[in-house]
From TrEMBL:
Span list, region Disordered: 130-154, 361-396, 534-591, 666-695, 834-866
Sequence ranges of Acidic residues compositional bias: 551-569
InterPro entries in UniProt: Beta_Casp, CPSF2, Cpsf2_C, CPSF2_MBL, Metallo-B-lactamas, RibonucZ/Hydroxyglut_hydro
Source organism (scientific name): Meira miltonrushii
Taxonomic superkingdom: Eukaryota
MF (Gene Ontology): RNA binding
Keyword presence, Membrane: no
Protein family membership: Belongs to the metallo-beta-lactamase superfamily. RNA-metabolizing metallo-beta-lactamase-like family. CPSF2/YSH1 subfamily.
Name of the molecule in the record: Cleavage and polyadenylation specificity factor subunit 2
Keyword annotations from UniProtKB, A to Z: mRNA processing, Nucleus, RNA-binding
Gene Ontology biological-process entries: mRNA 3'-end processing by stem-loop binding and cleavage
């Protein structure tokens, strides 16, 4: 049984006539696209995606997705991530660290790599602009959670730390395309396989097989067109994709499409059901023409972009244009991103996940670089005068981006380039909710000649959405997005109120007050450390005295050593004054150039008037030393010299700090844990040094009123399939049931239901379109049991392979044994004989009165009754096209075949000759469901064709 529940709401349009001041009805407010779905397959709870808005703020536009995840996270058994965008995995690290999400997570290597960089870019830019104290985020203790309505709560951040993000993504299990993975633990019995989805690098379409619920195909966001750096999705054979399996072999797209065809349940998106994409040529021409004309005139172009998922496609397009139009790099192409440099380095290592051509280029580049390094190594061994100036050069990679300049911040870009220089700037984030892109809008908006190019609509109520709405309302009816035509640029003419958060250095009185507070805090900390050290030394001294022989000399040595270390500060001023400095004062202790013990500085003389010595423990007077050195004495007890165990413990701590645990580690897991500890310690030290180098700063908020005068252009670069693809590809998959998610409105759901109902009426039994929180139950509840097969059954049973399983038909009896909790299957005859047979039965026993004897007629009827013979079951769905390929490829000689009608295949060479005879002609016809008819004369071809039909099924013979 499958239960599917959407946990988040897609984009919703606010009805016209309802402004901000009016409260919209439920279901009419436009929510941020934070994707998360819960699927229960055979009592196994699967979380599909774990997205978040770009601002990480909830209970404003983000809904209450964080509250729902907090409730269900501890019960999740499996997590699947489809893409590397914020809408698919933005909240995963926070849920892993704060919500108790401990389930294993599966995705592809590029999604895990690029997703980590995307989340890091977002949290670093937010933390650089806002003071995120613990009170700004929700506490992780569920007992402290408020039970009030989430709509009445103030918006809050759900932002993880950098360490939490790194730890969460390091634990992700990465898979390759076409790699079947048999899950274990709570998910035992499920088989997981990833296929290419297009749209983003490493994007996955998940195929999940269950022994009782069938095949589940999850295809949320996909693109059937081949782009510049990635291939199309595996959902369609005509996408021209070339997917590499785990062994590096190339499989045909037809074989991949057949593997995911006819799923029991398909989950896909309907957000672009009424959307028609613009042709790629028109879209690229509009973008490049606008950039070319703007920078030629000496102005600036701002393009808000994401951190990794769709950035590569745009960079490839611009880099190719720069290489063609500006080979001498007259105009800077800038990327403002803290993780941009690392993103490109990681992308160069993932060339095999890109197009087939790029994958081959990546392999050639890697081998060429290895050859260049080898030649350079040999050249170093030769004399300098024998070296050639024309050394071997490795071929360039498509991801070298020679014309791209990467800056970690706006300050770095301003130091390298003048604000008045003509340039193209790509900055994070695409919705302009924070980060460098939001600050650049305030600079660019006031200039009539500068341009802002939007590649997406942005999140609801974001700055990008406001600019997009301004551009859309001034477009012609035929040029609006979604109709297949590219819109025209406009001259902006509206007012925007932008709230800019920033971190600025302290100056003047604020800086002096901050430094004074730091000095006071350091002094208090030093005093606390001194008091703690003094108390520790006294305790250790008391322990040494109590453990020793109790001699007064030992006690005196310990006390004198303590006093030596305390002789600092004001006491040094009185050094050299002798006893006269303190004579008759009775004030605080002072220090001399010789050592004075205790309160000796306050003593006026050694002997009182009575003639007795009154100072010292035993009134022996005060003892002075001419040089302040303490001689440590070895302590000896009845067993010999006493050892101080604290010295050995301290030495062990030093070894651990120097990596001693790595030497003692005996397994790879121990070494990995130790390496992670060292990396975390190193990162913490670097962060501490960075904070020490940074000047004192404070967070400020500035409200800027901007008159938007610059030019505006929208160029859709989402890279998703449109309505035509949805109507064409979904029927080709022939799903038995379909769930459409991300519905925008009730009208769209009704239109899609009517349209897809007509298209899928032959294949799909049911079509579902759930809204947020609505549960869809599919199938019946089944139970799985674990049993052992007896030796008698294992010796006679024969298994047949069917997809990922081995199946057989058994007629057995369940036998429960006391020595094992797992029941045993035994043959029915043996079990019956064992029950009925009784060695101690009396053969000569008289017949019982309560047993009815059979008459002769009943005996004869019982003897003539035939026993049920074993039957053969054929499991599978025969495709006549597959049979046609089998007859032409596997049979020697090949048996030609052709379709003569719907569901009829004529086979045999003589069927296509002029003098055709019916001797070798065989007809294979599919009539009713599960019924196949093979007609023909008894000939060699007939049996070959019959065996070929049998071979395309799993044959299960009963006992």
């Amino acid at each position: 049984m499958i239960i599917f529940t959407p946990l988040s709401e897609p984009y919703r349009v606010v009805p016209k006539g309802k402004g901000k001041g009016k409260k919209a009805q439920k279901g009419e407010v436009e929510h941020v696209k934070a994707l998360a779905y819960l699927a229960e397959v055979d009592d196994i709870r699967i979380l599909i995606d774990c997205g978040a808005p770009e601002s990480f703020q909830f209970n404003e536009n983000g809904g209450d997705l964080d509250d729902k995840l907090r409730e269900i996270a501890p019960t999740i058994d499996l997590v699947l991530l489809c893409h590397s965008s914020m809408a698919h995995l933005g909240l995963y690290a926070y849920a892993k660290a704060r919500f108790g999400l401990t389930a294993p997570c599966y995705t592809t290597l590029p999604v895990a790599t690029m997703g980590r960089l995307t989340v890091l870019e977002s949290i670093q830019s937010i933390r650089a602009e806002n003071d995120l104290d613990p009170s700004s985020s929700k506490t992780t203790d569920e007992n402290e959670q408020s039970q009030e309505d989430t709509a009445e709560q103030k918006p809050h951040w759900c932002i993880a730390t950098a360490d939490e993000v790194n730890d969460a993504f390091e634990q992700i299990i990465t898979l390759r395309y076409l790699q079947p993975t048999h899950l274990d633990g709570r998910c035992a019995g499920l088989t997981l396989t990833a296929y290419s989805a297009g749209h983003t690098l490493g994007g996955a379409v998940w195929k999940l097989r269950s022994p009782s619920s069938g095949t589940l195909l999850i295809a949320l966001d996909w693109n059937h067109f081949r782009e510049r750096h990635i291939d199309g999705t595996a959902l369609v054979a005509s996408s021209g994709m070339s997917v590499r399996s785990g062994d590096g072999d190339e499989d045909s797209s037809n074989a991949i499409a057949d593997a995911i065809r006819r799923p029991d349940l398909l989950i896909t998106s309907m957000a672009r059901f009424n959307y028609k994409n613009t042709q790629r040529r028109k879209r690229d021409t509009a973008l490049l023409d606008m950039i070319h004309n703007t920078i030629r005139a000496g102005n600036t172009v701002l393009i808000p972009v994401d951190a990794a998922s769709r950035l590569l496609e745009l960079l490839v397009l611009l880099d190719q244009h720069w290489a063609y139009a500006y080979p001498h790099v007259r105009f800077p192409l800038c990327l403002v991103s803290q993780t941009g440099r690392e993103m490109l380095e990681r992308a160069r290592t993932l060339m095999e996940w890109m197009t087939g051509e790029w994958a081959r280029k990546g392999q050639n580049t890697a081998s060429a670089e290895a050859g260049v390094e080898e030649e350079e190594g040999e050249a170093r061994k030769k004399p300098r005068n024998n070296r050639s100036n024309n050394g071997a050069q490795a071929p360039s990679s498509p991801l070298d981006f020679k014309f791209l300049r990467i800056f970690s911040s706006l300050q770095a870009m301003d130091e390298a380039l003048s604000p008045s220089d003509a340039k193209v700037v790509l900055a994070w984030p695409p919705s302009l909710t924070h980060g460098p892109a939001r600050k650049l809008v305030a600079r660019v908006a006031a200039s009539e000649k500068d341009v802002i190019v939007l590649t997406g609509k942005g999140e609801p109520n974001s700055l990008t959405r406001q600019i997009y709405d301004e551009w859309e309302k001034r477009q012609d009816a035929t040029a609006k997005p979604g109709l297949g035509n590219q819109g025209e640029p406009i001259q902006g003419n509206c007012k925007l109120k932008i709230e800019i958060h920033d971190k600025v250095p302290l100056q003047g009185e604020e800086l002096e007050a901050h430094n004074e507070a730091i000095r006071a805090a350091n002094e208090r900390a030093a005093q606390q450390r001194a008091l703690l050290a003094r108390s520790t030394r006294r305790i250790e001294a008391d322990d040494n005295v109590s453990n020793g022989e109790g001699s007064s000399d030992d006690e005196s040595d310990e006390e004198e050593e303590d006093m030596l270390e305390e002789a600092t500060g004001e006491e040094a001023k009185n050094r050299g004054q002798g006893m006269e400095a303190d004579e008759g004062q009775g004030g605080p202790e002072i220090s001399f150039d010789i050592y004075l013990k205790g309160n000796a500085s306050r003593a006026n003389n050694f002997v009182e008037s009575s003639g007795e010595r009154t100072v010292g423990r035993y009134k022996t007077g005060i003892r002075f030393r001419t040089f302040p050195v303490v001689e440590r004495k070895k302590r000896i007890d009845g067993y010999g010299e006493t050892l101080d165990l604290r010295q050995w413990l301290h030495r062990r701590k030093q070894l651990e700090a120097l990596g001693g645990e790595e030497i003692e580690a005996q397994s790879a897991e121990d070494r990995r844990v130790q390496f992670q500890k060292q990396q975390a310690q190193k990162a913490e030290e670097e962060e501490k040094k960075r904070k020490e180098r940074e000047p004192p700063t404070k967070f400020v908020v500035e409200n800027v009123n901007v008159h938007l005068k610059c030019k505006l252009l929208f160029v859709e670069m989402d890279g998703l399939g449109d309505s035509q693809a949805l109507r064409t590809i979904i029927p080709q998959l022939e799903p038995r049931r379909v769930i459409f998610v991300e519905s925008n409105s009730a009208e769209q759901r009704q239109a899609l239901e009517d349209a897809m109902g007509k298209i899928l009426r032959r294949t799909a039994k049911d079509i579902y379109m759930p809204i947020m929180g609505e549960k869809i139950e599919i199938g019946e509840s089944t139970a799985n049991f674990t049993v052992n097969l007896g030796e008698d059954i294992m010796g006679s049973v024969r298994f047949s392979s069917f997809q990922d399983y081995d199946v057989t038909l058994l007629r057995a009896k369940v036998n429960f044994r006391t020595e094992s909790s797992i029941p045993m299957l035994e043959p029915v005859q043996a079990a019956t004989i064992k029950e009925e047979g009784d060695e101690n039965a009396d053969v000569n026993a008289e017949p019982r009165d309560d047993v009815i004897a059979l008459d002769d007629e009943q005996e004869n009827e019982r003897g003539n009754r035939k026993e049920l013979q074993p039957t053969t079951l054929f499991i599978g769905d025969l495709k006549l096209s597959s049979l046609k390929q089998t007859l032409s490829r596997t049979q020697r000689p090949a048996i030609p075949s052709e379709f003569i009608g719907q569901g009829t295949l004529v086979c045999g060479a003589s069927a296509f000759k002029a003098n055709a005879t019916e001797d070798d002609v065989v007809t294979v016809r599919k009539e009713n469901q599960g019924e196949i008819v093979i007609e023909g004369n008894a000939s060699r071809n007939f049996y070959k064709i019959r065996d070929a039909v049998y071979g395309l099924h799993a044959q299960v013979t009963g006992q």
